[in-house]
């Protein structure tokens, strides 16, 4: 199905975002308007034909770059003049090399890459924490053989706040924003009325809470969305998911996503200011009811409760308000004590399985605690391991978001010795 038609069906509720997950969706190149191509992959790419070669926003991951390049070459044979990295996540920045090889072979000028000044620091950090990033991304996406890269194509040019350039006669406006990352670039092409948001809009509950990744900035993210809404774009090309076409739809998507984030921030800060513990904040913050069914705000990748954790970390630090967790016992030591008090790991496991059968979300959470304690206390017991595998497999099946599914599936595999 054509991506524009599918995007319309998703907006109208005639198709489900759960069946067309924005993070893993892939499809053929679509010409969105004259001289504007959109390539939906794991990390979307947008290309613009100019009178001086191609301009691109993002160039794909190491996995998708060859497909992206082949698709783009069906649309245009022009050299790549300039590429902008919307941010430094590895699913957006690995396609330039294919165009550089072409340029060298054909005697063309090499592509010029532009990004925000924070992006090179991100690449430096990725090299420094390659082992950690490899582990958490294997866990998050279920990619057992993923190798985290340690070589990156750094930008040729960086900017600080705003930057304007021309590629041929195409006018390009870049603006730095903070949201999912601290190095985000919004690209606005006023002649085309095209807005490239990067991952500031991705057809899901904003990735403002990822449990395994560095700080996100939901308040600043909302401000960025409202600034984008003022541009009167006619075509929104996101970092993941499908295009949104039409100024009214774009304005609604951007402002309601901003409202979604603002509400979570305001509720969280109000409870923090009142002295609440993190566990109570996580339990009590809710998404505004009138936004809960929006197709572009579903928790299929990140989840609102994870956003609460990130807001707490940003404004309140790492301690959750529970005095026992300020200087806690080792997890395994605590598990052994609780197991002994409860009459053995088997009793904890049986209770955990019973809680899972109830079907209650709160009982599922309790079951997770109990089975983890039983397993930590007796990691070599095959019966406990089997119960842990079953419980976390069930939790993965019932979870809505990629992030929760990834962690729960990892725990289930770990129970059987199949570790990443």
Please give a handful of descriptors for the protein shown:
seven-stranded mixed β-sheet; Metallo-beta-lactamase, Chain A; 2 domains; 14 helices; Serine Threonine Protein Phosphatase 5, Tetratricopeptide repeat; six-stranded mixed β-sheet; alpha/beta; 420 residues; globular
Describe the protein in words.
With 420 residues, the protein is α/β, with parallel strands linked by helices. It has two domains: 3-261, Metallo-beta-lactamase domain (Metallo-beta-lactamase, Chain A, 4-Layer Sandwich); 329-415, Serine Threonine Protein Phosphatase 5, Tetratricopeptide repeat (Alpha Horseshoe). Helices cover 45% and strands 15% of the residues. The protein contains 14 helices and 13 strands. The protein has helices at 3-12, 65-75, 96-106, 119-128, 130-141, 218-229, 247-273, 278-284, 304-316, 331-342, 345-358, 361-377, 382-398, 402-415; strands at 30-33, 36-39, 45-50, 53-57, 80-84, 112-116, 157-159, 162-167, 170-177, 184-189, 194-198, 235-238, 244-245. It has a seven-stranded mixed beta sheet with strand order 1-2-3-4-5-6-7. It has a six-stranded mixed beta sheet with strand order 8-9-10-11-12-13, with helices on both faces. The longest helix is centred in the middle third of the chain and has 27 residues, at 247-273. The mean pLDDT is 96.
């Amino acid at each position: 199905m054509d991506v524009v038609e599918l995007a319309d069906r998703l907006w109208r509720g005639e198709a489900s975002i759960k069946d067309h997950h924005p993070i893993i969706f892939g499809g053929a190149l679509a010409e969105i308007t004259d001289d504007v191509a959109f390539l939906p992959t794991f990390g979307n790419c947008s290309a613009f034909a100019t009178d001086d070669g191609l301009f691109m926003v993002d160039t794909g991951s190491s996995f998708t770059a060859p497909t992206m390049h082949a698709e783009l070459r069906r649309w245009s044979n022009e050299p790549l003049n300039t590429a902008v990295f919307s941010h430094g996540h590895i699913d957006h920045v690995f396609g330039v090399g294919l165009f550089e090889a072409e340029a060298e072979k054909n005697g063309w000028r090499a592509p010029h890459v532009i990004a925000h000044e924070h992006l090179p620091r991100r690449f430096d950090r990725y090299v420094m924490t390659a082992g950690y990033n490899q582990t958490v991304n294997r866990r998050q996406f279920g990619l057992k053989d993923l190798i985290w890269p340690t070589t990156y194509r750094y930008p040729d040019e960086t900017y600080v706040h705003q930057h304007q350039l021309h590629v041929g006669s195409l006018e390009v406006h870049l603006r730095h924003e903070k949201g999912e990352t601290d190095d985000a670039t919004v690209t606005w092409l006023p002649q085309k009325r095209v807005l490239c948001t990067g991952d500031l809009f991705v057809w899901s509950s904003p990735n403002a809470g990822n449990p395994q990744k560095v700080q996100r900035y939901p308040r600043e993210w909302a401000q960025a969305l409202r600034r984008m809404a003022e541009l009167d774009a006619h075509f929104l090309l996101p970092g993941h998911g499908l295009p949104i076409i039409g100024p009214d739809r774009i304005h609604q998507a951007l402002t309601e996503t901003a409202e979604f984030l603002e509400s979570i921030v305001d509720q969280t800060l109000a409870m923090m200011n009142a002295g609440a513990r993190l566990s109570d904040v996580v339990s009590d913050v809710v998404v505004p009811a009138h936004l809960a069914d929006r197709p572009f705000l579903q928790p299929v990748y990140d989840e609102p409760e994870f956003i609460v954790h990130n807001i707490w970390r940003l404004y309140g630090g790492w301690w959750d308000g529970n005095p026992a967790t300020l200087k806690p016992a080792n997890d395994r030591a605590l598990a052994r004590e609780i197991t002994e008090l409860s009459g053995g790991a088997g009793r904890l496991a049986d209770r955990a399985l019973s809680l899972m059968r109830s079907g209650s979300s709160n009982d599922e959470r309790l079951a997770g605690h109990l089975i983890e304690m039983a397993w930590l206390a007796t990691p070599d017991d095959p019966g406990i391991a089997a119960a842990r595998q079953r419980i976390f497999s069930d939790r993965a099946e019932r979870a809505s978001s990629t992030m929760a599914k990834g962690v729960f599936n990892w725990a289930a595999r770990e129970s059987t010795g199949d570790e990443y």
